[in-house]
Amino acid sequence: MALPEKMNLKYFIIPIALIIILSLSETYPLYSRFRYPLSWDIWYHMRIVENFSNGFFTFDPVSFGPEGRPHTYPPLFHIILLGLYKLLNQFGLSLTDTARLMPSILFPLSTISTFLFIRRFYGEKVGLLTSFFVLVMPVSLDRGIIASPQSVALILIPLGFLTYLLGFEEKKYLLLSGVLSSAVFYTHGLSFIVFYLSIAMYTLLLYLTNKETKIQNFCFFTIITIIISIPWGIQLLKHGVASNIPYGGIFKLSFYPVKLGYITMALALPGVVFLLLRGKNEDLMLLSWGIIAFVFSRNYLASLDLLPFRFLEFLAYPIAFYSSFALFEFAKDKKKEAIIAAIIGVMIISSFPAAEYVSKVKPMIGNEECSAFVYLKDNSLFGNITVASSWFTSPIIGKVSGFKTVEGGYASGSWDYIKRSQDIKALYSGNYSIIDSYNIKYSYVGPREIAEFGNSENYINASSIDKLYSTSKTSLLIFWGD
After folding, report:
1. Up-side HSE of residue 143: CA atoms within 13 Å toward CB?
2. In this structure, what DSSP letter does residue 362 have?
3. Sign of dihedral through CA atoms 16, 21, 23, 28?
4. Model pTM?
5. What's this protein's family per the entry (predicted)?
């Protein structure tokens, strides 16, 4: 893709500047407002970064204690987080500070990536409006305000689609699309499913519309993806990934406009019709993206126990485009003043949910909970022992205290996840027989444990086990003794 001509440079720089300003206005205030990152899973990723720093690249010694487990989460996000931390640490920022700041980098980049994709085929105006909708949709904000591998994948996916389409004209872009595809594979598994199957769906739609199938392009793209992905593929084949990924249920259709926006959903339907009537190559690509994301968000493949909400986040990007495309199709041959007024009105109304959302978010860990983990770190001897907690709290305990945990982050990707989950549930129900099995020394009871295990606090308090540390009713650390 050639750079824009000098005379059009302002139509390239100004939209990107606007995207950066709006995205930073949503993410950076959260960095300055809270001491902790907003999501639970970033604690797991921060600890994996520490593992990388200590030479553990394929093994996680803290999750699934006391023995640890093979590390099977794709490594690219951790490499990026580690590199960014090394850079920002020169200015005094900690790893936690880096994780808090990272959304202010990733969210603008994913939106700019989308803008570049849409702009190439539909122009600056449609690209900019699409980017605006991405930035204000509640479901894309869910992902945009946190640092995660999926956030990195959402930077790569639009660029992958763009280079694949450009590969019809120049072979070098097709090669680049294969490289980007493998980068998605090294970043986030569910993202790779969406991206690769969207390309496959696009190839099928080309065939069904009696156009040139370009099957050789798809095969070349696939081969490049496989070749570059072999190292991590070997790691997965050696250790396996359990099929019992947490099941998220099936959302009612009425849930979609709540998370994707009522206005954008209403505009997306005619936008899809307009694209079907046009039927150009780029139209089919964007339709394929939406089809795959929607099908998986409905969990029609429920036997795989996938997470439908994650696919709803992927659906936000094509929905944002369908809405923008529809608006400009409706605006054809209309008065310029009326068009501008209508678009500004839609943008203002669409931004209300986003503003309310950002004003209400908060971290999933508070000062009292964190203080319990710090106390454990500062007042206990390390050894081949573990801490019991809910799966949600486990990666936070592991990162802050440094102690091994019974479950750990992304427990569902490991072979004995179900057994460990059942054992932990039994422990919090008063069955202490599994303490020796995992060499449990401490058990933590906080808001998440009380919510997840019901009467866990009553069982713990009714026992003869000593209380080591507590903060009001929000955090309770139990000492198991010798």
Report:
1. 31
2. -
3. positive
4. 0.88
5. Belongs to the STT3 family.
